[in-house]
Amino acid sequence: MKKNSMEKRLITAIIAGLMVLAFSGSGIAADTIKIGIGGAHSGDLASYGLPIVKAAKLVVEDVNAKGGILGKQVEVIAEDDVCKPEVATNTATKLATAGVTVVVGHVCSGATKAALDIYKDAKIVAMSASATNPDLTQSGKYPNFFRTIASDDAQAKLEVDFALDTLKLKKIAVLHDKGDYGKGLAEFAKTFIEKSGKGQVVLFEGITPGAVDYSSVVNKVKKSGAEAVIFGGYHPEASKIISEMRKSKMKTVFISDDGVKVETFIKVAGKFAEGVYVTGPKDTSTNPMDKAVKDAYKKAYGEDVGAFSINGYAATQALLNAIQKAGSTDYDAIVKALRTEYVDTPLGKIKFDDRGDAIGVGFSVYQVKDGKYVELKK
To answer: Where are the domains of the chain?
Structure first.
């Protein structure tokens, strides 16, 4: 029985190998350059992932219309991870198996981290437009990872400085959703407050994502005497928390992150979103390319760009430019090109440091005014 089983496995492996050779010989496997897009394309957080897919496709369509890359057309393969780490490993495996050269993704930090080891083993470069967890670039674990957005330590520092120095608040409640992204940002915020000598963390609490209500933690915030809440997490939970706070007649300032800076938050929270502060990628509307991309996006999809569309557009540009500059789809050559070759994007002219972070990319503070995010100028 064991012998037959071994023979079957050997035959299967031989057949699989012959199939690979057959496809390679016919040119089927190499007739396009495949670019993967991994992220939340369904579920509550699809409002982050789908705009990145749409932006990436605009880049690819433009590149293909001009003859492609290295004489080949670029093919997009999108896979959904619902922003869940346990799904992202399967998503990454699918993309690697499909033969992608590079990946735009993933969206959420936890899902990104789960996928990166698979890409690393497969010698695939991944570039995120939205995954901000510092460990992704600062740990040295993922030499195949790059991003077109700044990290959470910079974002948390901006939020804390804004609360303490601009708003002159002293008592801060720090909440998070227990995830890699939200908790990581909250821990940085807590550390910055404590080291500042200007403020006090009166509550540090994790919440359960997807809960029906957050009245318990809202009551804790109220009892703590907090003048402001800094929340690390995403819009579904943020909209519930701010709504419950305002329904309880609490005037506590609410400050959050780029995980909340999405139109869906305003739509769901409604009037309770008014006055909320969030951090997000700097406004690049003065860049002519930014306007051109937004106009093209509107024309193609009949809607305005999403929260990370511009960062996703830049990530796709950077990856395809690196392949072109490298003159091949070789992993090491692409990595070298990303770190040495500048590329013009809606974010500006960028390249990447040795850690994988985009040089010159940062955050701004926004406030919801009359149902719109308005960048607050320094």
So the answer is: 32-149+286-361, 153-257
